[in-house]
Every structure is written in structure tokens, then in C-alpha cells.
Write a structure and sequence with these properties.
This protein is of the alpha/beta class and 312 residues long. It has three domains: 106 residues, 4-hydroxy-3-methylbut-2-enyl diphosphate reductase, catalytic domain (Cobalt-precorrin-4 Transmethylase, domain 1); 92 residues, Rossmann fold; 84 residues, 3-Layer(aba) Sandwich (Cobalt-precorrin-4 Transmethylase, domain 1), CATH 3.40.1010. It has eleven helices and twelve strands. The chain has a five-stranded parallel sheet with strand order 10-9-11-1-12, with helices on both faces. Strands 3-2-4-5 form a four-stranded parallel sheet, with helices on both faces. The chain has a three-stranded parallel sheet with strand order 7-6-8, sandwiched between helices.
Length: 312
């Protein structure tokens, strides 16, 4: 068996920053550390933090008054910030800067009186936080069919933004439908789908034609990981999303000679290496790296972390 390891894969700059924020708060303040929503959408990362005293909450009301609360990489709505301030919580914001960029776009469009279309998945944490910036001016669409049903106040004054973790192909289909129905629709100044999502999808699209099977390491609630599976399917390949190597099904490998392995932007690299090691043991697999793009992006810690004081 041959293994082709997609590069880039795994952690992106936003995930690295968010995880590092929680690590530093743990060191500075000790457990428990409260995090609003899962810091990133990966079961292994979340479970590891839970074992070390991190408490993930879905409502800031679950955080004791005056405690530190860390906001996840996916961003939050102004209503959550207001509730935190009302309860005198110490806020540490680990929102990915690329998500903050989309929030800022929504604020500007809303201020200028646009009806805003958010292209994304309505129940995803990122969508909930972004929509909260202008709930009376924004509508979520998930498909070209949603565009057909869209009702806006002024077809001459409509704009769109996108979730950062979408399928590039799906997003473009929806954007095309918007432009066909609303020729004056205004695009964001710069692409919203993040560099890491795009690079990982491009790597799968480029290498998939060479393989018989694609395996994606990532959790079920990870949007960008799900999109990697869809990208492989677009290329006509069998593909499976797994949290780790324990979820492998031996029947997947019948007649398979070459496997592409990649990982979503919130999946730790050690899970990839565990998968490679198992395929080497059971199938005598040899691996090689296929680099499609180089990434050297990093994000500085948020100012809210730098201003946090050590207790004790």
C-alpha cells in the first residue's frame, strides 16, 4: 500500500492560537477554566482539556460571576459579550482573526443599510456568532435553492459574506446563484473562506485523482473536515471522516493500493501519525508527502490574554 500525506493538513493558525490561549490561561489561573463553546471542533482536543480542568459551557450564565471566560475560535455575538460584561466576567477572546474579519464586514454592511446574506450552515457556532452582529439585517442561505426563496427589502442594496470553513465549490455555486438573481449584490472586499480551508481542499482536489481512497482525520462537528470529504467525493473518490485510527473499517481497503490521508484544521498531527503507523503495521504501507501549498501564517495572542494577570 502507498500512503500520500496531503500537505498542508491539520492545525491552522487560528486553531494554534486558540489552543495556546487556553493553555496559557490554565498556566496563569489554574483550573477550572471556562470556555464558551468548544474551543475548536475536535473531540480529542476538547477531551484533553476537560481532563485538565477546562469546563466548556453553552451559556455564559453557567460561568460563575467574576470568573475568566475564554471565547472559542468560532466567534460570538454582541449579546454574549453584553451578558459577560453584565456578570463581570473577565473576557479572553480566542476568536480567529479571519472570523473577526467577517464580523467586521457584517457590521459595515449593516451600518450602510444593506440586506446581508450569510452563506453558511445556520447552526454552526461561527454562523450563530456572525448573524448576531446584525440579526435584523442578515439571512442565512445554505444552498442555491435557498437563494431562490430569498426575500430582501431592496434588491439594489444586498451584500453577502461567507462562513470561513465552507466548501469552495459549494460557496461558489451559491454565489453564482446570488449574482444571477441579484446582479447588484456586493461581495466582501476580500475572500471570506480562510486560507487554510482553501489550501486543504485544494490539496485533496489535486492529489485525489492518484488514489483509491481518501481518509480525513477530523470530528463530525468540524465543518472544514466535512468539506474535505465532500471535496474527495467531488473528485469521484471514496472518502471517510474519522476521529482517529480506531474508527477504520477493514472493508474500506478491499482492492485499495493508494490512500490519501489529510486532516481538518482542528485535528492534531499525532492522530495522523497514529493512522499512518497502523496502515504500516497492517498493510506494509509506505508513505510520502505531497505538498500543494506552503503555510507560514501565525496569529499573535489576543490583547485580552496579554492583559490577564496571574492569580496567586
Amino acid at each position: 500500500m502507498r500512503i500520500l500525506l496531503a500537505n498542508p493538513r491539520g492545525f491552522c493558525a487560528g486553531v494554534n492560537m486558540a489552543i495556546d490561549v487556553v493553555e496559557q490561561v490554565l498556566r496563569m489561573r489554574g483550573a477550572p477554566v471556562y470556555v464558551y463553546h468548544e474551543i475548536v471542533h475536535n473531540r480529542h482536543v476538547v477531551d484533553d482539556f476537560r481532563r485538565r480542568g477546562v469546563v466548556f459551557v453553552d451559556y455564559v450564565g453557567e460561568v460563575p460571576d467574576g470568573s475568566v471566560v475564554v471565547y472559542s475560535a468560532h466567534g460570538i455575538s454582541p449579546a454574549v459579550r453584553a451578558e459577560s460584561k453584565r456578570r463581570n466576567l473577565v473576557e479572553v477572546d480566542a476568536t480567529c482573526p479571519l472570523v473577526i474579519k467577517v464580523h467586521n464586514e457584517v457590521q459595515r454592511f449593516a451600518k450602510d443599510g444593506y440586506s446581508i446574506v450569510f452563506i453558511g450552515h445556520a447552526k454552526h457556532d461561527e454562523a450563530v456568532g456572525t448573524v448576531g452582529e446584525a440579526p435584523d439585517a442578515i439571512t442565512v442561505v445554505e444552498s442555491p435553492e435557498d437563494v431562490k426563496r430569498l426575500i430582501v427589502k431592496n434588491p439594489q442594496k444586498i451584500a453577502y459574506v461567507t462562513q470561513t470553513t465552507l466548501s469552495v465549490y459549494d460557496a461558489q455555486r451559491i454565489i453564482n446563484a446570488l449574482k444571477a438573481r441579484f446582479p447588484h449584490v456586493k461581495a466582501p472586499p476580500k475572500e471570506d473562506i480562510c486560507y487554510a480551508t482553501t489550501n486543504r481542499q485544494n490539496a485533496v482536489a489535486e492529489v485525489a485523482p492518484e488514489v483509491d481512497l481518501v481518509l480525513v482525520i477530523g470530528s463530525r462537528n468540524s465543518s472544514n473536515s466535512q468539506r474535505l470529504v465532500e471535496t474527495a467525493h467531488e473528485a469521484g473518490k471514496d472518502a471517510y471522516l474519522i476521529d482517529d485510527q480506531t474508527e477504520l473499517d477493514p472493508t474500506w481497503f478491499d482492492g485499495v493500493e493508494t490512500v490519501l490521508i489529510t486532516a481538518g484544521a482542528s485535528a492534531p498531527e499525532h492522530l495522523v501519525q497514529d493512522l499512518v503507523a497502523r496502515l504500516q503495521r497492517e498493510h506494509g504501507a509506505e508513505s510520502e508527502i505531497r505538498t500543494v501549498a506552503e503555510e507560514d501564517v501565525s496569529f499573535a495572542p489576543p490583547k485580552s490574554l496579554r492583559s490577564l494577570t496571574v492569580v496567586g
